[in-house]
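Record type: monomer structure entry
Structure origin: computed from sequence
Chain ID: A
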Amino acid sequence: MKKVIYTFALLFMFFFSFSQYSAFEVKVTGSGQPIILIPGYSCSGAVWNETVEHLKDNYKLYVLTLAGFSTARPIQNEEILATVKDQIIQYVKDQNMQKPILIGHSLGAFMALWLESSAPDLFGKAICVDGVPFISAIGNPNATEESVKSNPQFDKATTIKNFENLPNENYVENMTGAMLYQVSDSIRAKEIATWSFQSDRRTLGSTIIEMATTDLRDDIAKIKSPVLVLTSIFGTKEASEKVYNTQYALLPNKTIKVADSKHFIMYDVPEWFYQQVDEFLNAK
């Protein structure tokens, strides 16, 4: 009887734990200082596979896939990204992680900044791979949350509907073509396109608007840990530096480096990427 009760207790703990963190799936690899790796928009945590191989001998790696992206189960929350943020913070506390490092790409970099500014004493260093605190201000530095939210082009319900109406036929083929503007390798482009096809359409529509209408440019002044910002080429190196220095103006302890790369820096220039990561993580 005791064994039966013990088994039920374990099952209860498992399902309770799972329900606590419905906003992401996590895969844990390696041992050592904790690093949380957050993929970008629509991507699986598998986007970090090669990075995991590079780091796993020295760090304990928590690779996330956000709810609704790729094959991860979606959540129905009105504010998906805010829910992700809150649950990651709770997960770090529940796991008793000591100053976990954050590495995020694109939307994942935005999430890393949101986490660091929301709980500056909880997290250690952060690496932001081609992501910014307010994506809507890249082309218009005077944009604000209010001006974006009042623009009909950023209506969440309409955007979700548009995503839901995208035909499945030729989705991967068309998206692969679009992804070749963001990554050089055609096999990688198709992989990313497949993750997008697998993703929940409501999540794709909702999260892109949530990120576009959330301005962290002032909030990042609260971040206490060092942050490495890696940016791709926006036409020229000088143009990239200008955009990123403007976006990150209030971040106190930052290093900004420009990669000779498209958006998926860890795919296009992996050796350069690993060198920047290692130097930053090893620095005192």
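Annotation 1: The longest strand covers residues 59-66.
Annotation 2: The longest helix spans residues 2-20.
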